[in-house]
User: Fold this.
Amino acid sequence: MTRINPKFHIKWLTILLTLLIGIGAMVFTHFDAPFYHQTVAQVQKVHNYGRTKVTDEFHNQDFQENQTVTLKILNGKDRGKIMKSKNQFSGAGATDMQYHAGQQVFVHLGNKKSNKSSILINGFKRDTVVVFLVWLTISLLLLILKFRGSMALLSLVINALLFFAAVEIDVGTNFNPFILFSILAVIFTFVTAALIFGWSKETLVAIASTICGTAAAILIAYLVMSATHQRGMNFEMMDYVTQQRLPLFFAGSMIGSLGAIMDLSADITSSLFAVYREEPELTFWQLFKNARKIGRSIMGPLINVLFLIFVAGTFPMMVLFMRNGNNWGYSYSMIMTLGIVQSLISGIGIALTVPITGLIAGGLCETKVIK
Amino acid sequence: MTTITALIFVLFGAMLLAGGKQGFVSFLGLIFNFGLVFMSVVLISFGIPYLLVTLISAVIILVITIYFGNQQGRNADIAFLTSLIVVGLVILLIIPVEHWAQVQGFGVENTEDLEGLSLQLGVRFLDVSCAMTILSCLGAVAEAAVALATGLVELEDHDKTITDTKLRKEGTKVGKEIVGTAFNTLFFGFYGELIGLFIWFARLHYDFGMVLNDKIFVSEFIMTLISSIGIVLTIPITIYIVIFQKHRRKKVNN
Assistant:
């Protein structure tokens, strides 16, 4: 019984190596201040002055506290300098926060002319936590799925690069953003499908139905919005807008629903072709019915994925609005409508993809294009 | 008629067209889920402890998502149990990560929206962020769990004598396909939601370091990564539960 099982041995080595990489990456982010253009400082110690109760005009009771933060500058020409800054925070912490010793922050240094050297904290350094979560996701993926998980990662990286390229083109040129992101959506579909499902006729069917499903959803949304004159939609409440709102909203809805639609059409296509291979005598209608059978059980959970993401994202603004003396109905109509319309559009796209995939895949099988 | 009402009718029609009676039940599930999410945010804004509100609505949302509009059977039970375990694990990750990242509330990019509003509300926005992150991952976890459990139960029904090793191997294979598409669902959703923010970053020439530390970007990125982690965790847990149940059944039969 002295023989060591080599498989077991390698597994421990992998886990140890993954842990070392993770710790290494996180230690690096602790010392990466020299790589930043902005000035980075570390909180040495804080002195708190005690809480004062505050009540606003809506009778919300909260507290406010002042603290003096001693900061040590970590990069730039003032590196090593120790300075003091004032900070005020509240219990709610909507836009402020309490600092603790050991945390790293971004600071803005006042100009040299004024004798009093002023220092202002203007951001919290969050790269360590981002690196930690990225590391955790990748490690779990590779430990559980081994190398088979790497294609999913590769598609994520390529799609991110494509997306940022499209954003740069949008900002740098006068190209119509909706057309630009439609082209991006088509490229996304091809790249992702090819990487995840491999290149085959089934993949082509999935790509065709994904594009048709997404286009149908956007077209219907556009028609409905025109017919109802966008009643009840508060586009002025859209966040982070730097250009025309409507094309941006449609582009966002389109890209947002694309992944879920692709998921569904790929599922239906692969099951349908498997069925067809076993029973090639099935007619178009039988295949179409089969597609509905597969589609309807996945459809609900899939619509829920995006719905929960889009609606939960409005939570902070909802709380802010309701606590500011607005009633439920008004807060809902101001804050939640856009998120809900976005999830409705993706829901329509997902639901329509079921018959669309059935038509395309069933039609192709029927005409014996695919053996 | 408002745009939302019209779109709800269209969605209802599309779901009926796609799934018939089952589509109708799925549609009802969606409406219930919306009611739950809406009640959750109302209760949290009243100052009721967020963890209590979130845990209760999370369990109900999972029940609705998994059992509504799905063939109810052993696969749904396995998916529900898996989702409960995964969401529990993920919550243990969410709470420390949210405290560590300090992404609660609003970023500098929101300044314009906050004008004239009182910010000292007595509700901790850190709690709101935790609630938001927990609820947003439920859909992804439930979807992955249902797909995987259905695949494994089908496999087991097909071959009653299937070995543990084969189940593990096939489960990982099915899991790989699910992860590939589910990750893209999440990340495309992420881009679709934040397309405006990314254009903002590009217009104002944010550098990589600024984006990586931006409050809103990090907050949404954490939500997406947490959901991804939830999906990956679903794979071993579903496989383990299927194997565990198989052994228990064997014992009972003997």
